[in-house]
Amino acid sequence: MGGPTTDVFELKSPSHFASVIWKRRPTAGISPTKLTVVTCFDHWDVTNTHGKELLNWSGSTEFYWEDLRLVGFPLENGVPPDIWRPKPMGNKGFNLGPAEQGKLLPSFANSSGKVSDGKLKMTVKFKIVDVNMSEQLDRFRAFPFDSLRIDNSMVMLNPFKDGDSPPFYNIQFDRPNLKNRLSDGIYQHVDWTACRHSDDYDLVCFGYAVTRNHEEWNGPPRTFTGIAYSLHIARTPNFYVRKGIVPLFLVSLFGLFTYFLEPADLNARVSVLSALFLTVYAIQWVTIERLPRLPFNTVLDSVAETVVGILIFNLAGMCVSFRAGRPDEGCFGDCIDFNTKASEVWDLRFALAATALVVWSIGYQVVYQSWKISKKSGWTRPWPLGPTLFNKRMHVFDQGYRLWTDEIWGEKHGKKFIGEGVPEPGSTW
């Protein structure tokens, strides 16, 4: 946090501190206590257990603040056990350990010298365990392009309110960065020591923000403060695209090439389409072990069904083409009187219609549907549309950030980063 070392402060006698009510907020009734926050992102992973995708996340939030009543306090005496400190309360499933019971004692932020400069630090470890990501069913409709947003938050309570009134806290992400890390930002917003990938998933970005009540709730509007965290997670679709979607569309392309066979040779055309029909289900079998068991169609299911429909449509078109070209008395042997021109007219009509179906499937079923579903229930969902009470009551007004952890970022920083995220307006955070 900067400032002079403790050596410049004079050691004060115990009697100087005898009348201090340590459990009272340092600036009670005067101004909010400034909290400087650094988030340590330690670990995250997704495991697939009995058809459920379970998320685990752990890290810590470092709080730094100043209590001028401690200036000159002997370091060897330790922090007074009843000293005021922030009391965070986690959202459901967001475990903050002893800090939630007010049992976590802060430490002196600067330990050099013999006396305190009044600066304190409290490290609150947090974790979420076995969060069932499969409960967010709607996002699976975009499988394998599905994504989700996991929101967590804590609200900051004032453990001793006598003679005090909100707002109690002024939370800022403004701890000066290390000199050797200034290229990553002048402040330490996030101390990152995690990986980007886990199982099928990538961490697209890590969101963090200061929240305040936007209506009367535990105090007047914008006086009740909290910190929100968000994991923006997306499935890596490469396996399913290369082993499923691309082969399926290649099957439909092969089905179109069948129109280049002679219209009179219906047997050859039917044989090719029959083999392609079975190939569709063989392709699905490759990925079936990794597919979620869902009560509705996904993007991958829709593509498979469309390709089957295109093959049947081609078969129907070739039958119509054959009937249009064969002579009235039937077609046997070499079928010399077969009207090829009439058949080719119908071939062209059905081939163009089948091509339109392929283009429609790629554009609508894959691209548009994936985008539409992900916008509603994927990682791009804004904070206020989340499911918890804190999503509804606590909004982001001026301090919202996202740390984008893309491939370029990963190659540059690896598993160690200390720096800033990118500001994001509260309306879209």
Automatic annotation (TrEMBL):
The keyword Transmembrane applies. The chain crosses the membrane at residues 244-261, 267-287, 299-324, 348-367. Keywords: Membrane, Transmembrane, Transmembrane helix. The keyword Transmembrane applies. InterPro entries: Neuro_actylchol_rec. This is Neurotransmitter-gated ion-channel ligand-binding domain-containing protein. It comes from Triparma columacea. The lineage of its organism: Eukaryota, Sar, Stramenopiles, Ochrophyta, Bolidophyceae.
